[in-house]
Structures are given as structure tokens and as C-alpha cells.
Amino acid sequence: MVLDANWAVKWLTLCAQAMAEHRVELIELDRAIGDSDHGENMDRGFQAVLAKLGESTPETPGAALKMTAMTLMSKVGGAAGPLYGTAFLRAATALGDSAQIDPSAWADALAAARDGIVARGKAESGDKTMVDAWTPAVDAARAAADGGSTDVLGVLVAAAEAAEAGAVATDPMIARKGRASYLGERSAGHRDPGAVSSALILRAAVGAAA
Ligand code: ADP
Ligand code: MG
Ligand code: MG
């Protein structure tokens, strides 16, 4: 399995499918601790990415991610639009114009995405945001790649599983960033919607390679 431009197109297509399928779930999560629009925002954003993919085919994974960044920034709005826009843009820059992504490059791209989210939103681990999905994913991908894994699917799976566990781990956290922070301690006992959408994105990366 190689992660090339075809894989990237499939990944983004599966992201759009996942956001449509989980739209209501993300809306419900955001209803509990936010303003109920996260599912709508993410579905709209990735449907626009899908439309762009129908207009032209990116030549490299980096080009696909850069197009995604621009589209999400212009279509998603709210907190998530600029955060995901920055994440995809930084990942695209990390990948450059390489035709293929190897395990270490995937770990580097995830780290760049996470660093972009942190630069933009200033959240730390434990603040009950999407960072709590991304940071464990970065660490798991790095560990898998440094462990000498030449199997890129294994690195994708490690990142997705860590993001999913990270999203679940936001349940007891008290939000310190974003709208959910307005609730203070009442934000505890709910899963962060952005952490869940982040895990869906990283799970779609596995689906595209499987
Ligand atoms: P809004 O809160 O503007 O309605 P969304 O509902 O689309 O935007 O996105 C909310 C998600 O954005 C949260 O669940 C959280 O994961 C993420 N988020 C909000 N603020 C920050 C931040 N400062 N840093 C990182 N992530 C954040
Ligand atoms: Mg919202
Ligand atoms: Mg909103």
C-alpha cells in the first residue's frame, strides 16, 4: 500500500462520507456543550471539498490537502473552520510535493497539523478540544514510525486508534477553550465534538488505505 494522490482523494472522499453519516451525532454533541452546529459545519465543509475534487484531480497528496485547507477555511466558519484549515495547510506544507507519504512523513504531517491547531487556538492537552485527539495520534504515529514500521497502514491505524481513545478521554474534562468553556464544570460528562470529528478524519485515512 502506498499513500499517494489517489489515496488522498479517497481519504477526503471518505471524510465527506463520515461527516455526512455522523452529522447528527456531531450536532448532538455540540448541542450539549456548544451551539449545535459542528455537524452542520463539518458536513458542509467536506461536501465542498468533494465538489472541488469533482472539478480537478490533485497531483500530489500535498496538493489535495492544500485544496482541502482552503475549502474548509472558506466554508466551515466558527472555531473549527480556521483550526482545520490551518491543520490541513500545515500538513500540506510538511508533505511538500512528494508523490508518496511514508510512515515517518505521515507522523511529521500529523505533528505539523497538531502544531498548527495549537498555534491557532492556544489549547493545551486536557483543555477538552480537538487537540486531545490530535496529540495522542501524533505520539502514536511517531512511536509506530520510529519503531521501524515500514507498514504505513499500521501507522495510520495507530494514529486513528489513539485519536478515538483521545476523544473518549475528553468526557470527564472541563473545557478551557472554545464555547464549551463558557459552561465551566458543567462541560464535564460530555464528549468534545471537535475531538470526535478529528478521530473520524483519522479513521477515514485508514479506510482509504485498507
Ligand atoms: P463553534 O464553537 O464556533 O460553533 P464548532 O462547533 O464547529 O465551532 O467547533 C467546535 C470545536 O472546535 C470544539 O469541539 C473544539 O474541539 C474545537 N475548538 C474550539 N476552540 C478551540 C481552541 N481554542 N483550540 C482547539 N480546538 C478548539
Ligand atoms: Mg459549534
Ligand atoms: Mg458555531
From TrEMBL:
The keyword Transferase applies. Keywords: Kinase, Transferase. SMART domains: Dak2. Gene3D superfamilies: 1.25.40.340. PROSITE patterns: DHAL. GO terms for molecular function: kinase activity. The keyword Transferase applies. Residues 6-207 form the DhaL domain. This is Dihydroxyacetone kinase subunit L. It comes from Arthrobacter liuii.
